[in-house]
UniProtKB/TrEMBL annotation:
Cited Pfam families: TPR_16 (PF13432)
Signal sequence region: none
Domain of life: Bacteria
Disordered as annotated region, ranges: 205-225
Protein name as it appears in the record: Tetratricopeptide repeat protein
InterPro entries in alphabetical order: TPR-like_helical_dom_sf (IPR011990)
Amino acid sequence: MPEIPLKSLDTRIKKRVDNARTALDRGNYEYAIEICSSILLDTPGCLEIRELLRQAQSSVFAKNGQSIWSKSKGLLTAQTLVAYGKPYIKKNPSLAMGYGERALRYDPLHKGALSLVAAGAEKLDLPETAVFCLEKICTKETKDFNLLHRYCEALISLGDTNRAVAVAERLKALKPESSIIQELVKSASVAHSINRGNWAEEEHDFRSKLKEEPSSEESEQGSRFLDLQADGAVGTVDLIDAIHRDPQNLDLYKRLVRASLKSDEYRTALSWLDKAAQLPQAASDVSLKQLRNEIMIRATELELQNLQRDPSAAQKDPKDRIQKLEHDLESLKIEESRKIVEQFPNDYAQRLNLGELLLGAGKVDEAIREFQISQRSTSLKRRSCVMLGRCFFRKRLYDLALEQFSVVEHESPLMDDFKKDVLYSAAECSEALGDVDSAIRRYKLIYSNDIGFRDVAAKIDSFYSETD
C-alpha cells in the first residue's frame, strides 16, 4: 500500500479534513480527532491527515494538564489500548494503528503507542508514516536497539540515506559485533552512495563504471547472481561458477551454503563454509558462525531421525549414539537461542524459548531467569508462570511453585487442557506440602470435566476408598 498525498483523495474526504482543520483552529480538538481517526482507519497511508491528528492529540494532552493523577490515568489507558492493538498488527494493521492513535490521545509521545502505529505502517509498506512515528521515539530513546534498527530500515526504505547512515552508526556503536547491523550499515552506505550519484551518474552506464577493472564482463555476470533471490532460484552449479569468476565475493559463498542446506548436503555446505571462512572479510562476519551452527543443528537432527527409524544403521551401540546426538542437539539449540536473545534482548518469546531449552537441559536457575523476564509480556505471562512453577517444583520449592500455578489457575477461566495441566501441577504441589484437601479439590475439578485426564480418576478413587 503506497503513501497517499491528501490532494489525491476523494473530494468528500478532503472536505472532512478541512472541517477537522477548522475544528482544530477553533479549539474543538475532540471533533478534529474523531474526523481524522475515522478517515485513517480506511486510508492509513495519508501522512498529512496523521500529522493533523497528532496536532489535535497534542492539544488535548496539553489541555488536560500534567498532574500526577492525570499522567497516571493517561498512562494506564494508553498501555491498555496498546495491549488491545498488538494482536492486530499482522491480521489487520490498519486497526492496530487505530488503537495506537487512540492511545496517543492520552500521551502523544507514548513509546508503545508510537511503536504500534509504526509496526502497522511497516506491515502496510508505509515507510514515511513509520519514520514519522519512530523518529519521535528514537530522539528520546537513543539506546533502544530494536527501535533504532526499525528506524534505520524505515529510513532506508524512504530514501532518507543521510539519517539512515547516522542511525546505522549509532546501532554499530551499541552492538559492533552484530552481523545484522554490519549488513544494515552496508545497506545504508550503499543506498547513500546511490542517492549521491556515486554509482549511477547519468553520463555513465554500468560498464563504464567498471572500465578500470581487469574483468568487467565477468564481474557483471557474477553480480547477476546477487540480484536473484536466495530461495533456490539459483542452482548450486551456477553459484559455483559464479564463485570461480568472483572468488572474493563472500555473499556467493553464503548462498551456496544455504542452497546445499536445502538439499540436505551438509558436508558440502560445511566444505564451502570453510572456504568462505578463509576470506579476509569473513573474520568480522558473525553470520558465518550462525550458519555453521545452523548446519550442525540440521545435520544432527537428520542423523537422529535416521537412527530412530533404523537403529541398525549405527556403527556402534545405537542407544549410546542416540543419547549423544540428543545431547549435542540440545546444546546446539541452546547456543543458537542464546545468540538470538543477545541480539534481541526484548523479544520475550525468544526468552521463553531459551528458558524452555535450559529447563530441558537441567539448567534450572538459568531457566528461571529467562522465565522471570518473559513474564513481563502480557501475552506470555501465563505460560511463563507455568514454566516458573515447574522450575520451582524441580528445585522442591513447592510453596513458590504453588504460587505460580495459582496465579495462572485464577487467570484461566476456560477448563481446557492447559488449565487442567495447571490444576494438576498445583495439586501435586499441595500434596507435596501435605495439604491433601487442596490437592483433592483441584483433582475433583479436573475429574468433573475430564475423567480420562492422566491418572486423576485413580487419585479420586483412592481418596474415597481411604475415607470409607
